[in-house]
Amino acid sequence: MNFKNLKRLVVKIGSNVLTKDNGQPDLSRMESLVKQIASLKQQKIQVILVSSGAVAFGRKELFLPDKMDTVLKKQIWASSGQVELIQTYKKLFAQEGMPIAQILVTKEDFRDRRHYLNMKNCLEGLISQNVLPIINENDTVAITELMFTDNDELASLTAAMVNADTLLLLTNVNGVYDGPPSDPGSKLIPFIGAKIPELIQAISPVKSSFGRGGMLTKLHMAKKSADLGIQVVIANGKKEDILLNILKKETEFTFFEPKTSKHSPKKWLAHAEHYFKGEVIVNEGAKNALFSEKISSLLPVGIKKMSGEFSKGDIIRIQDEFGKVLGLGKAEYSSTILGEKLGLKNQKPFIHYDYLYLFQHA
């Protein structure tokens, strides 16, 4: 396992790591993780924390009727619990002499490139001033169709945004298993290479008590992050000194080997599959050019059809003639202008290579 030295680390702590089985906050676990993060900072490792727990903290404080709308209950618990969660973190990190900042986001914050860069600049500013950013989804205002799958997705997006070299997903199992973790016959998969095999059938579909996601989400996000050049670790956050022992390789975990790092715009596009405003269908020649070893932009001459109304800067989904999704890109001009240039030669690129992300399976 080629484990690169950590320079910038995104740590995601799941709800089940921060709460006991009875739903009460596990303050001793929080305190231990805070001390470990402080130790990482002393080793000159930059840390961004993505923390679940707000809903679980709110759930212990407020009893809500079973018949209440699920999304509304989640909003109430999140808005109440986020206060206690961040206050607890502030107190614990203050004991380590570390200032913190709270950042609450929704998926909408990642859709617009300008908004995305503003958020990135804020995070970079906090890190430069040795302030620890603590990020969570703003469940209070998020609507169902625009919620993150869970904080694994948010952590993966954040790692891509800040060009982290490592993403560490802490959960309540030791990593990825070749079967249900509760099955005594299941074995931990310690290493998943850059050419990641199809493991979906082997992963337990069981979700946590307090979170929305499960191991399938973690696997999907880990694969995507590794494809972008980010090394990923899935480990058990309930183990003592887990963060420090991962660095020393003295504990069990699953490591995802990273591919070659992608440029920042491509990292943004890699997570934009639900944000596209329009679609284009390309011919076979354009498809072959895009996937050749030669660097190629998408030109109007290679586009057979388009759909949707979009402006310059919007995200576009690219398909081949058989309906297979090839990738995503940022439009260099609007749907109106593209309609006039469709199929024409000697035109400026519709999607420049620097703002083109192709799916590996295509």
TrEMBL record:
| Alphabetized InterPro entries for the sequence | AceGlu_kinase-like_sf (IPR036393), Asp/Glu/Uridylate_kinase (IPR001048), G5K_ProB (IPR041739), Glu/AcGlu_kinase (IPR001057), Glu_5kinase (IPR011529), Glu_5kinase/COase_Synthase (IPR005715), PUA (IPR002478), PUA-like_sf (IPR015947)
Spans traversing the lipid bilayer: none
First-level EC class: transferase
| Highest taxon of source | Bacteria
* EC annotation from Swiss-Prot or TrEMBL: 2.7.2.11
Q: What pathway annotation does it carry?
A: Amino-acid biosynthesis; L-proline biosynthesis; L-glutamate 5-semialdehyde from L-glutamate: step 1/2
| Location within or outside the cell | Cytoplasm
Keywords of the record: Amino-acid biosynthesis, ATP-binding, Cytoplasm, Kinase, Nucleotide-binding, Proline biosynthesis, Transferase
Q: Where is the PUA domain?
A: 278-351
Q: Which Pfam families match?
A: AA_kinase, PUA
Q: Which PROSITE patterns match?
A: PUA
Catalysed reactions, as listed in the record: L-glutamate + ATP = L-glutamyl 5-phosphate + ADP
Q: Where does ATP bind?
A: K12
Function description: Catalyzes the transfer of a phosphate group to glutamate to form L-glutamate 5-phosphate.
What the record says about family reads: Belongs to the glutamate 5-kinase family.
What name does this protein carry? Glutamate 5-kinase
Q: Which organism is it from?
A: Shivajiella indica
Q: What is the lineage of its organism?
A: Bacteria, Pseudomonadati, Bacteroidota, Cytophagia, Cytophagales
